Amino acid sequence: MKKNVYVIGIGPGSRDEMTFRAACVLKECDVIAGYQTYIDLIRDDYPDKEYIITGMTKETDRCRMALERAQQGASVALISSGDAGVYGMAGLIYQLGAAYPDVDITVIPGITAACSGAARLGAPLMNDFCLISLSDLMTPWETIEKRLDCAAAADFVICLYNPGSHKRADYLQKACAIILRHQNGSVPAGLVRHIGRKGEDAAIMTLGELQHVPVDMFTTVFIGNSQTELIDGHMVTPRGYTLL
Amino acid sequence: MKKNVYVIGIGPGSRDEMTFRAACVLKECDVIAGYQTYIDLIRDDYPDKEYIITGMTKETDRCRMALERAQQGASVALISSGDAGVYGMAGLIYQLGAAYPDVDITVIPGITAACSGAARLGAPLMNDFCLISLSDLMTPWETIEKRLDCAAAADFVICLYNPGSHKRADYLQKACAIILRHQNGSVPAGLVRHIGRKGEDAAIMTLGELQHVPVDMFTTVFIGNSQTELIDGHMVTPRGYTLL
């Protein structure tokens, strides 16, 4: 019998923005593994599954438990919100999977917050952009700082994941200060909280204003480039089409 | 009656990797507008729709025709492959939509090639990354060059869209040369052609080797950073978890 772990991005949260492929694997699998918050988003749709649920910072344990159950013959779906390949579990499962050579790993992509959040704000990501996580739990702050500086210097649109938490209350402010070395304070910025979930909330402002806004780990931040403009209240980065 | 244009990302191409929301709007709408190649991907599933089909470089005409039909009272779905908000039609429709104030615009995100291609290769996008289009049709080459240089200097993983065409046969080679100023030729790179469509094809190599590989506009390219490694033939950028 083939032993499988499917690493699934469920998208922002509602079933509507999940792909058919993700839903199909969730329906067919024996075991669903994930972080409590993400399991809560889907559990009602799949009441009869075996669940492996672990807390935050228990990612390694969770992945290893998923691989163990697959090794024992179960078909296992390991879920992340958004896309499992973007700050999700796909990388870790490949790293740990090397010790389970007869378990096949398949990544099933989902809508990452850059895309779902951008759609709520308008069309900020129409041209070259960067994704940067402000979490320094696993990336040194100096590296993050360098990436923010280079991204703004090259006039990328910038999307920030994990912009803040209780412990990192001033990180967005620090990031904005770096970006403001290269970008004008008047460039449009936006943020979306709880994308596609209960309490979804979006706001558009300037980069200058963004500095002073409180954010949490459920917020995704968008900072425009020199081309980004506001059109009827939407944040849009034109791509350069001639509008004859 | 409400007048609507839905700008829809249909994902890589197969219905499986479309979201439920995208499929639902396609089913309910009156008119589907798009570039011929993308219409061909979905037409069999929706035989009874009115279609607006235009060729490449006719993006402005296509968007305006979609807005006109909505203005007349039709519910119109304008499709892009991947995500409509990433090098797609979402920005242009907002720009042109300003002239049609009673038409509502809604963007429905889809799986962009960065995510669908990454899933085929392994997990290259687990840490901060950039998307850069090598098409200089609407962005000056100097800007693209600067972005490539900054992205590599900051050790971003880089995903390249539109890496080549008949007219731009050597652009990937030029891009690799810029990245090689900062990255070692041995960093893993990968490419995926026709993601999720007939003839899908993926390959993993080094950045040094990538320079000499022919690519076309249906290819998406992934260039690792200093952390990216090969694990059992997959391209993986570890995020820094402790594997105790």
| Helical coverage of chain A, percent range | 25-40%
Number of domains of chain A: 2
Oligomerization: homodimer
User: What is the residue-averaged pLDDT of chain A?
Assistant: 95
> How large is the share of residues in beta strands of chain A?
25-35%
Unreliable runs of chain A, pLDDT <50, ≥5 residues? none
Look at the structure and name the CATH superfamily of the largest domain in chain A.
Tetrapyrrole methylase, C-terminal domain
- Which CATH class of the largest domain in chain A applies here? Alpha Beta
Distinct helical segment count of chain A: 8
What's the total number of strands of chain A?
A: 13
**Biggest beta-sheet profile of chain A:** 5 strands, parallel
Largest interface, Cβ cutoff 8 Å? A-B, 78 and 78 residues
Report the C-alpha radius of gyration of chain A, rounded: 19 Å
